[in-house]
Amino acid sequence: MSSLARPTEPARACVVGLDVGSSYVKAVSLPLDSGARDANVLERHLARTGYDYAAAAESVLGRFSVRPRVVGVTGFGKSGWHGAASTVRRTEISSLAKGMNHFGFHDGTLVDIGGQDSKVIRLERGRLAGHAMNRRCAAGTGAYLEFIAYRLNLDVHDMNEIASREQRHHPINSYCTVFASTEILDCVRQNIAFPSLIRGLYASVVQRVREIAPLHPPLFLSGGVAEHHPVLLDVFRSLLKTDVQAVPDPQFLAALGIALYAREQADNDSIQGEDDGRPL
Amino acid sequence: MRQQLKSQEALKGLMADYYRRLDRRECPVAWCTSVGPAELLRALGFEVYFPENHAALLGARRLGSTYVPIAGREGFAPEVCSYLTADIGAYLLAETPLTHYGLTAVPAPDVLVYNTNQCREVKEWFTWYGERFHVPVVGIATPRSLDTLSPALLAYLEASWREVTSCLESVSGMPLDLLRFADTVELSRAACGAWQEFLESNRRRPALHTFFDHVILMAPVVVLRGRKEAVAFYRDLVSEVASMDTSSGGDRYRFFWEGMPVWGKLRFLSEIFDRLNVDVVASTYCHSWTLALDGARALSSCVEAYASIFITRSQEYKLAYLKDMSRRFGIDAVLFHDSKTCPYNTNSRFGIPVRLETETGLPTLIFCGDLVDMRHFSEAEFALRLEAFVEQLGEAD
Questions:
Q1: Considering the domain boundaries, does residue B187 fall inside one?
Q2: N or C: lower Cβ tally within 10 Å for chain A?
Q3: What is the ipTM of this complex?
Q4: Which residues of chain B have a CB within 8 Å of the CB of A135?
Q5: Do both A64 and A125 map to the same domain?
Q6: Across all residues in chain B, what is the average pLDDT?
Q7: pLDDT at site A199
């Protein structure tokens, strides 16, 4: 199993995978030279998507030190970006499955929790065998945690640490994100331990995911929430009574997957050769 | 690009004539549910107006989110059938898309007639209007979730039909002419038969038409059942399809649509399926008007046909029906529309998709939406789900 390490390598011919998500644009580059197929990611970059996702994608792409041969684009904004002559587009669901295969995870269930979607993806013998998503409402996704952090005047990154102080969670019942934050305030007034309430938010995320589709083991987590809120793994394990593991660099899994598709495209186009090495 | 059916043009004139005839009020007007006893009403001399057709027009014009909240004034929750809430909301604002045909308002009813074979909402919907217009509301209370149609059930339903007939005779001021009723049922049989023949023509490859043609072309079999114009229209349609060039079309996926149409997104849906190389070739919805009627036994065939539509049936029956349709139409995958405000015609909530996949290997995709209220449908979410589903099918090929 190869790992998705931090950028260390000098400029080389490459492809880039762009995951234009609702909250962040994530991007990785992979080497094209034939001797380095299992090598690490060359570079990775991240930026807030904001309202102009095409500009955000362009900005992230501009940070790479080498012009990519092919750009793969996935995510919610994949159709709106047209910045490269050679582009391959796939959904983030197929890209996530591709990334899973890269790490040798060929069977099981991947739960990807992003800014506005929670996706449950079933893999069988390396093949995308089914998928399901949150229905109608984005409660139980990254936006849910961000909004409640805002209402409680917390830094969203502190929530993980607060929830880690407590092993039990206090259930948050409200289906609605706004009412959930009000429910927490009510509980605080009733002197219920704050860490157990914050842990309850993570439990609420897990319960939402459970409703989406059966979670057949082995179970994997990806997405920005898994990356920045590792306490979620503990909560998954305690509620599901099963082992759960985060994939390497979980926020970049879809970007890696689409980069792998881009590399296949580059191979198919037989356009490998000497890169001009110019910065973008 | 698929060939445009010439019958689409003929349909416009046919529907315009229908609405204008309603507006002239040369006969008493009965409001009827879309799978209600239209033949009985026509045999008794009523012009027949269908509020569901009106609601679908509101949906197709993307007016649902405008009108649905207005019905809240009358205490109707937004979770209630959006046909009902959009239609009542438009009525409260005295607005209608029928102005396109020269009408200033929906035609006032002399009587309202429902059949609960679709849902219970139709009774509440029609009762509200009955109180507004001070006219009688009568109906047939058909049970649902039926495995079979037992003799006892059919006897009960036939008695209900007879009671409704008596009420309608009082309103129309004339007794039911059984010969005229038989002739009307026979015309319905012919229209439904030709409609079915048209739908079944899509068993061929490549598909010549899709669900998004069907939901437009179905209008006469809903609103003109029992009239000769509907028979002529569908016979022409069948002839047109028989003469179409079937030599091109390529290798495309064939999907089955289960559930209500998303009226406000027909163009978006048609285009995205086409772009992804998918033909939605058949549906439970459009096949609901392939009623097995028989003029030789007019009443009993109506009783049976209207009680045995897909919506009234049990989970076991529905699963068997979907398996059969998938086999006959050479289906690659089945889409289930989970319609927020139409639980009775949403068939993905009690395990049918899982069982269909397990027992046949057919992939299924459940998507969330609504028939009229487009606040429940996200284009971006649908596009992602469908694109990923097609990619998944591509991997399996």
A1: yes
A2: N
A3: 0.83
A4: 338, 368
A5: no
A6: 96
A7: 96
Is there a single domain that holds both residue B220 and residue B137?
no
Is the CB of B391 less than 8 angstroms away from the CB of A91? yes
Structural domain of B349: 180-396
Phi, psi for B48 (deg, rounded to 5): -115, 130
Residues B121, B188: one domain?
no
| pLDDT score of B314 more than 70 | yes
> Which segments of chain A are extended strands (E)?
14-20, 24-31, 43-48, 71-74, 87-89, 108-113, 118-124, 127-133, 219-222, 244-246
C-alpha to C-alpha distances, A220 to A112, A238, B332, B338, nearest whole angstrom: 8, 15, 29, 28
**Using CB atoms and an 8 Å cut-off, which of residues 340-359 of chain B contact chain A?**
340
Could you tell me how far CA A34 lies from the centroid of its own chain? 28
Of the pLDDT bands very low, low, confident and very high (cuts 50, 70, 90), residue B105 is very high
Q: What is the pLDDT of residue B357?
A: 95
B376 chain-A contacts, CB cut-off 8 A:
136
- In the block, which residue shows the tokens 């490998």? A272
Return the SS3 of A99: helix
Q: Are A15 and A261 spatial neighbours (Cβ–Cβ below 8 Å)?
A: no
Q: Verify that A196 and A241 share a domain, yes or no.
A: yes
Distance from CA of A93 to the nearest CA of B (A): 6
Per-residue pLDDT at A38: 60
Cα–Cα distance between A214 and A114 in angstroms, integer? Answer: 19
Taking CA atoms, what residue in B is nearest to A80? B380
**Dist. CA A155–CA A158, nearest whole Å:** 5
What's the total number of domains in chain B?
Answer: 2
Give the containing element (helix H, strand E) for B281.
strand B278-283
Q: What pLDDT does residue A70 have?
A: 94
* Integer Cα distance of B340 and A208 in angstroms: 18
Q: Helices B379-396 and B266-275, interaxial angle, to 10°? A: 30
Q: pLDDT per position in chain A (280 positions), as tens? A: 444 555 555 567 899 999 999 889 999 999 987 655 665 899 999 999 998 988 999 999 999 999 999 999 999 888 877 777 778 999 999 999 999 999 999 999 999 998 888 999 999 999 999 999 987 787 778 889 999 999 999 999 899 999 999 999 999 988 888 899 999 999 999 999 999 999 999 999 999 999 899 899 999 999 999 999 999 999 999 999 999 999 999 999 999 999 999 999 998 875 444 444 443 4
Q: Report if residue B80 sits inside a domain.
A: yes
Domain boundary among the residues B147, B177, B207 is at: B177
Same domain, B129 and B142: yes
Structure tokens at A51: 């309202």
In this structure, the answer to whether residues B111 and B222 fall within a common structural domain is no
Residue B1 placed within a domain: no
- Do B165 and B194 belong together in one domain? no
Residues B145 and B89 in one domain: yes
